[in-house]
Each structure stands twice: as C-alpha cells, then as structure tokens.
Amino acid sequence: MLSNGFSFNGERKDFVMTISKKRTYWPPIQRSLLDIPKVPGSRLMHSKIGVRELSIDIEVEGVSQEDLRKRAEELARWLITDEPAPLVFDDERDRTYFALVEGEFDPTELVMRGYGTIRFICPDPYKYSDIKSIRLFPNPSAIIQNVEVMGNIETYPVTRVEVQKKLNFFALVTGDDYLQIGEDAEVDQTIVDPETLVFSDNMATTTGWGQATYVDNGYIAGNIISNGSSFIPETYGTVIKPPQWQGPSVKKSISKALEDFRAEALVEIENRGSRTGMLEIYFLGSSNQTIAKIGIEDRQAVKENVIAKARIGDSDSGRWIATEEARQPEWWTNFKGMLRIQRKDKRWTVYFSPIDAKGEHTYPRGSDGSLTYFDVAGEFDEPITQVQVAFRIYPETERAGMKVNDLKIWELNKQPVNYIIYVANAGDVLEFDHYKNTIKKNGELLLGLKDFASNFFALKPGKNPVSFLPSDAGIVTVSFRERYL
C-alpha cells in the first residue's frame, strides 16, 4: 500500500514518485503587539493565522526524453487550478488540505527523469476531516442532542431539512445562539399561504392542450407530443416562405383568471454543436392577447450562445424585462433548468437558472431581484387565463433538442391584516450553510426570510447541544468537516 505519495483534486499519477514532504505542524501565527513606555513587555493587540505552505519533492519518470516532456504537460494540467483543490497525503488520509500550486516547477532532468519541488499554498490555512453527518432527532420532551466536534478549532456546519409539514418558521438552536427563518405565530396572528397552486402539468400527456393559432415571431407548423415526461416537438412542418422561425405550439386554459401570479417552467435546450432553437412560454388573456412571455433560445449557427428572455405585453407595444445570457457562454450551454415570471402588485420579476443533477441552481440570473419592472401605469395588468408552449427552429440550420418538463402557475394570495406566512411546505428541502452564510430552498437561494437577530453560528470543539423547532418539522441532518490547525 502506498504510504508516501499524495492525491490532488481527486487524482494521483503513477509517473510521480514522492521523495520527501515538508509540512509544518501548524500554519504561521502572526502576533500584533503594542509597546507601552515604561511597561515591561508588550500588550497583545490581535493575532492572525497566515497562509499555510507545503512543499513536496518529487521524481517524474518517463520512458524516454520525449515522453518526459509529455509528462510535464500532464503534470501542469493536473496541478494548476483556478481555485483551491483537495490535497491528501497517503500518511494522513483522514485530513484534507485545500491548496493551490504556487510558483514554477523547475526540475533537474537526468535522461528520462526529472527531480524538483512542488510548492503548494493554502489560503484557507486549516486542514479538514472527512465530512461527518449527524441526524438530529425530534425533541418534544426538550431532550437536547449533543453534536461532538473533534477538531481543535470551531467549524461551520451545513444543515439540511427535509420538510414534512407546512412551516411558518424553522429554528436551529445551540447553547445561547440560534439560526431561524420565518416567524413564530402569536396567538392573535393568522398563518396564511402566500400562494395557491392553480395549474400544474408534468407534461405526461398532451390531452387537454389545443392547437395555438399565433406566435409573435415566425410561423406555427408541425406537431408537439409527450414522451411520457416531457413535451417535445415531433415535427416542425415543411419550410414556409419567406423563411422565419417556425414550429409547433399548443395552449391550455388556466382554471381561473389570475392577476397576481407566479409561473415556473422546467425546460431544456440542447444546443451544443452550434444548433439553433427557440422555446417560449406565453401567458394569454381572455381574447388570446399576449400578457407576457418567457423563453430560452440559441440564435447562433456558428457558436453556442443561450439567451433567456422575458417580455410583458405584445410584440408591438410590450416591454422587454430581460434578455440575459451567462457571463461565460458554456455555463448555459445545454441549458436544463428553470424559467420563472411573477406579477405582484404591478411589479414584474423574472428569474432564470440552470439546475444541476443535485438540484442546485447554478449560474442564476435575477436571484437578487434585479430583473424587475414596476408597471406604475398599469399597462400590463390584465388577468392571464391561458398558457401556451411554443417550439421553433430556423430552416436550414442544425436543430437544438428542446423539452418542457414541467409547468406550474400559482395565484399570489391577498393577505389579511396581522398575518405571517408559511415559508416551506412538505416536500421542500431547506439548506443552511453556516460558512457561506446562505439559505437555500430546493437548491435556490432564499432571500429576506432569515430572522434578523439569528446567526450562522459555528460548532465548537467538544460537545455542542443542538435542537430544532418545530420538533416535527422533518428530517434534520447536520454535516460538517472538523478543522485542525
């Protein structure tokens, strides 16, 4: 079994042999002292833990001088990263450093071997244990559970809550500190749902959907089918002249006319390989007029460039709220995620985000509420009564694969006097990251619901009494890495 090597960023190389390592027993500690005249010694003002440095003397082995040069390129690909990556030594497998390569690697080469020193720096100077997860149990009898931390410095946990009932608040409590979202109700307060789900379609069948008659950019042609879990375009029709965007479209009635509403669509566009496509969701009034639309598209035939868009009103007199793209195009290439639009008290807001395999919202736009328009004059306040799905491609271009996987619409309820709202429902997943100071619900950042007086507290070395309220909120798991100097 190897005992002298190391892995970096989850990889190790069989052509690299570790000769020796230099690891300090703790990172540098810098003391700031104040000299006071006529007073012996100095007064400690503050202390700072500096950047930890590690060095590894290695031998790089090739089968020829030419092969050694290729090994050098592979070594650079492996070790040079933009962000700190996990570094684990064979003789310290239960500890992880998060490190970056610093400086150059300038080996002495002898025929087919190179000898030199790799220098790592750790901006985060601590070393970490493997992730430990502890499930907290309900405590209706006020029995406090202890979470034991074995490190020699405090650490910041991640708390995950699989919600099993409606919650107007959730609190995680330890000692004299706590972290909470929402509000506990007083006896004279009413707890209300901020929204009511009025339209939900998992796209398992096209039954109930009818042929649409209008899109505001091109032609309707072809057919939409369901593959059992998604709406997909089966055909786009024969090419219509003059060429414009064309494809199938269907629509469906909403059970009631909605003024204040929120709509979310889970969609996909597979555009890698310079393929083009346009996917739009329209929200229509009683006379089939366009009240709003959201969509995602790639209009580029020579490169990948996904754009998410939102407009209120029709194509003649409407207003674009957003035409957004990722800061780096590859972030949204083969977009699979959420499109959202909301109208509340004349304020329109939109949000776009890919969603990864873990359910995390990645590279979102509009999460800070910046994609907003306030319709002061009430130009776009007509109720919505129908929803429409449209797929289109441009003739003679490579077609992007497109899907609508789910579509939901909520009515935003009018609230009574002296009320508080539910902040989570059964089936939701809450995540509290005490290190990043973030709260997420179902993978999306949750803003504005944290109790102002509560804190993202740390767990101290030793036993930490931890409990949660309400005691029947759901399955609560606290995960953390122990930290060591």
Automatic annotation (TrEMBL):
Residues 21-122 form the Siphovirus-type tail component RIFT-related domain. Residues 405-484 form the Siphovirus-type tail component C-terminal domain. This is Phage tail protein. It comes from Bacillus mesophilum. The lineage of its organism: Bacteria, Bacillati, Bacillota, Bacilli, Bacillales.
